[in-house]
Every structure is written in structure tokens, then in C-alpha cells.
Amino acid sequence: MDRSLPKHxxxxxxxIFILNPESATEAVDRVAGRCxxxxxxxxxxxxxxxxxxxxxxxxxxxxxxxxxxxxxxYLGYEGMVHxxxxxxxxLDPVIKHLTxxxxxxxxxxxxxxxxxxxxxxxxxxxxxxxxxxxxxxEDAFGGDDRRDRGRRPPREEVEPQGDDDEETSSDEDDLE
Length: 176
Known about the structure:
Layout: E1 10-19, H1 25-41, E2 45-61, E3 64-76, H2 80-90, E4 94-106, E5 118-122, H3 129-132, H4 136-140, H5 163-175
Parallel strand pairs: 2-5
Antiparallel strand pairs: 1-3, 1-4, 2-3
Helix pairs in contact: 1-2
């Protein structure tokens, strides 16, 4: 159901892929080079490339709690996403990837690319939030998980009602 577009019209996509956190800079450069090659060979146009650096993952992926995030925004034609994702699957440092179509029927001539928009060098260092954030165990067993809601009011003491005593005595009568 993928209709082909004329060469003067393209689709806009964004792809985010996650690399193994132990990957060397050379591995990041190799993956970035492969992505640029695929986009240029299929007559696409790379609009933006960012290295978001090493970040904590929401869940463990291939036994890695962290990963190096790379963001790509590009214009492409029929089959480009399939070929790019095929190449990402073949590269060992890539542990996860996702592509989303942003716009359909885009004129590539109107989209200008600045040189500073394409950089595969990490723009910032990993934040030290991990040390400040409490663990689940601290939240569940002794940490203050109420955060900005303040302390709870004390519980009201409730006295047991006398109905419980009567039920136990009737149970004892039934046993005799």
C-alpha cells in the first residue's frame, strides 16, 4: 500500500537508534557513516543528526540498562526506511531502533540543512541524576515517597466493636 512519490516530492522520517553503552567512538562513527551512506545512495536528504549521549533506558534491552541514543531526521523515498532498518539490524552495536513517518509529500527543495544540525558527536555529558534518584527499595521501605504532597495526617484510632465477642461466643456454643 506504499504509493511511490515523484522525485520532486519525498516523505519526512525520524529514526532513533540505541547503541551498546560500551561502544567506542569508532563504533558510533561507523554506524553514523553507514546511515549517511544509505540515505545518500537512495537519494535522500539528511536534515538533522544528533548524538544524545549515554542515557538510562526505561527497561533493560539485551542486558544493558543504558544506551547511547542517536537521532536522525531525513527526507526519503520508497524503500529507504526498509533499507536503513535492515542495515541497523546488521550492525552489532545497535541494540534497538525505531522509525516514525513525520510528514508525507514534502518538497525537498524547500528544506534547507545547516551544517551544525548534523553532528554525531555527543553534545553533552551524561547527567548525574542517577545518584540523586532514590531506588525502588528506598521508596518502598523507608524512603519518603510522598515528595511534594507533605506528610500524612495521623490515623484516627478506631475501637473494635462488641459484635466480634458475641460471634466468638456463639461459635463456641456450636462446638459443644
